Amino acid sequence: MIHHFGPLRGEIDGSLHDDTTYWFADERSGDRLTLTYERTPEGVALGGLVAAKLEGLSAVYGPAFEVVALEDVGTRVGPAACASARLVAAVPTTVCLAYVGREPLYLQFSGDESTPSLLRHVLDSLSYDDDSNMIPAPGFVRGAAGALAFDMPSSYSMPDTFRFSRESIVLECAIQKGRDWRAPTASS
């Protein structure tokens, strides 16, 4: 299976589970997008995964955590269950999360009030790696997590450490970033 390692691509044995936590962050604003492929119990619906995640966040933050919206949406790679919430703290934060696909991929955005529209843009731009005709919208670059590619804000940094496992086997890859390390753009 083809996986992305920042702007690099490589083949990973399909029997390995992608345990990477893909962190994309804007160092100036502190906004970040986190993506992980989560192992989930058989037969649990995407909406049930979102509800469980919201319950966990609510237990951590208590009354400062307020769910704003829940919705099911369609994407190019399958259905997604989404939620938006507000964390009322010293720095108010909007948290948006979604589960999408069969494996499923968990996405979480943390940022300001524009965060729900950013999550929606990422979900709308999801595609499998073999769809190379996707051109990022202005202000965005194509990012990737495993075999899925998507638009992300061009100000976000890309991950440099990747982890895969199967039973007692763990494969970790770390890419040393040079000054030319950046996401591919429409012109590259």
Report the span from N to C terminus: 23 Å
Output mean pLDDT. 82
User: How many beta-strand elements?
Assistant: 14
> Can you count the helices?
2
According to CATH, what is the topology?
Answer: Protein Transport Mog1p, Chain A
Largest sheet: 6 strands, antiparallel
Second CATH tier, the architecture: 3-Layer(aba) Sandwich
Using the coordinates above, name the CATH class.
Alpha Beta
**What would you call the shape?**
globular
% residues in beta strands: 35-45%
Quaternary class: single chain
Q: What is the radius of gyration?
A: 16 Å
- Which percent bin holds the helix content? 10-25%
Q: How would you summarize this macromolecular structure in one to three sentences?
A:
By secondary structure, the chain is mostly beta strands.
Key descriptive features of the protein:
188 residues, mainly beta, Protein Transport Mog1p, Chain A, six-stranded antiparallel beta sheet, three-stranded antiparallel beta sheet, 14 strands, 14% helix
Describe the protein in words.
A hairpin with a 4-residue loop joins strand 8 and strand 9 (105-111). Helices cover 14% and strands 44% of the residues. The chain is mainly beta and 188 residues long. The longest helix has 16 residues, at 46-61. It has one domain: Protein Transport Mog1p, Chain A, CATH 3.40.1000. It contains 2 helices and 14 strands. It is globular, with a radius of gyration of 16 Å.
